[in-house]
Amino acid sequence: QVQLVESGGGLVQAGGSLRLSCSASGSIFSISRMGWHRQAPGKQREIVATITAIGSTNLADSVKGRFTISRDNAKNTVYLQMNSLKPEDTAVYYCSAAYLINSMWDFWGQGTQVTVSS
After folding, report:
1. Residue spans of the chain under pLDDT 70
2. Which residues pair with 28 in a beta bridge?
């Protein structure tokens, strides 16, 4: 089992920045990729960014140039740096982890709220 705990959400004005953290614990040695997703009210959950065990990253088109995903293996933590935030970035942000590169996500965090005011 893997436990994921997100932190760093909050209220920020448009144009501001936030950094989300996802701390992983448990059987993390077999995790091949981690990701950040978000779900806005009334909308489906969407993937925002992913990072593999070797550091390869992918970002959704809607956040490219504004968000960065990174990881600190010594701290078992994945970060989502969010800059130039927009009101449409408002959502609950979830961290996830998967054992395999091309499989479904195996573990989810509880989510952290990000609210961007205009």
Report:
1. none
2. none
